[in-house]
Request: fold
Amino acid sequence: MKTDIEIAQEAELEHIGRIAEKIGLSEDEIEYYGKYKAKIDLAVMNRKKADGKLVLVTAITPTPAGEGKTTTTIGLADGMRRIGKKVVVALREPSLGPVFGVKGGAAGGGYAQVVPMEDINLHFTGDFHAIGAANNLLAAMLDNHIFQGNRLGIDKDRITWKRCVDMNDRQLRYVEDGLGGGKNGVPRKDGYDITVASEIMAILCLATSLSDLKARLSRVIVGYTFEGKPVTAGDLKAAGAMAALLKDAIKPNLVQTLEHTPAIVHGGPFANIAHGCNSVIATRTALKLGDYVVTEAGFGADLGAEKFLDIKCRIAGLRPAAVVVVATVRALKMHGGLPKNALAEENLAALREGIPNLLRHVRNMKEVYGLPAVVAVNRFPTDTDEEIGLVMDACKQLGVNVVLSTVWAEGGKGGEELAREVVRLCEEKSDFQFCYDEKLPIKEKIRAIVTKVYGGKDVAYTPEADAEIARLEALGFAGTPVCMAKTQYSFSDDATRLGAPEGFTVTVRSVKISAGAGFVVALTGNILTMPGLPPVPAAERIDVDETGKITGLF
Reply:
């Protein structure tokens, strides 16, 4: 069996200029990054043209068995193109942390991939490096301001801004810097986030223009004065230089699928610690270029889809036409308590125990958000007809169809049936609504997410979180959306509680404001904004030969 990278390297790519032509982009509207990548001019998203229909692909709660959400997104877009639809796929960029860690890249898999796969997974067009540079410029200017006399009266023990690097490096979670005395800086406790957790990433992905980007950057809060007053990037006069570093990164990237479907890949916040969607600019651009846009949101629907709908759609004024919820029989059996080494065996009892996880996600899309939905089951050779039938029967009780997908093995051909169902759903009337009113107090918004989406009973707060919420509301931040930072492996804040747990309480241990992005972040459980590498990192298997051919990526 060929690996993902082998399939990608054997593909014959079309010149990116030809891909641009398919969706009506002129030479003046793209900037070439070699033969197979290009940046799209920001003016394209403001064309006087009706938007296409927006399709969100999400999934059940992830397991080690895999669900194939990005693969399904790409295969669905290829399938829609095969049935004659003008479609654009819109995805996030991969972070180097997971690429070299345990999760791998984010370019799809099998015969449903975006290419050039190696470039997309490694550096791409340099967007993440620009985001890291802007983040760290702000950190450098902050510490320099304190060193040079601290005119603003910043309390170094109340600094909230961290440096970042796009790598899983637990050694950097807690550091002390400015050591050495004299001209070596002011000693203080500090730390690093992974770049995808940086507020700069969230800002880039929610900005609607270069001027909006600059305004958002100026609102970033880096810490507080001795009197408790917030200090912003604007106060430090850093926003202009940060925006200069991001002037190219804000432009969306054009690539293609293995079947030459146009793909816009831009931005990459994680969904467990940030809002988990590609950029607003990329989505708006895609909606002007295609009659249908297929996009995805990170991890399960309780994380990525909730934030896509409650944060991105609210801020950007987007309205999805349909939702695809991706599942596998294997993953559902894991949610039913079956170990990974037993997933190849038929086990209807374990499947029955795991199906409620899928049903809760589907019910949320239909009842909480009022959106038409379909379940896409990635079929494995070991799935039996009885197991597939059990999933179909359960979903029918919610009035939702189940479509089998074989896009990993067959590409767009394996996604044609799903494509037809999605096109049908896009014509249905929807009553899209948000999970909560953003004018509610912060705690009420958190409670709405926990009880309506997660299925929990209550929310508890540490004294630190309580005090910070009170301070943020006093500062005028009560009326902003909430971004929950929670484990991706459970509806609850306990990663070991699989399936569809009930009656649990989610504990918010700390809260912070992302004033530039425009949301409050509530951190729960043991969630970390700087991951670590596993015992055997994927990096150990990645290599490059004398010709420059890369191996080991997945």
In short: The first strand starts at residue 30 and ends at 32. The two ends are 14 Å apart (CA to CA).
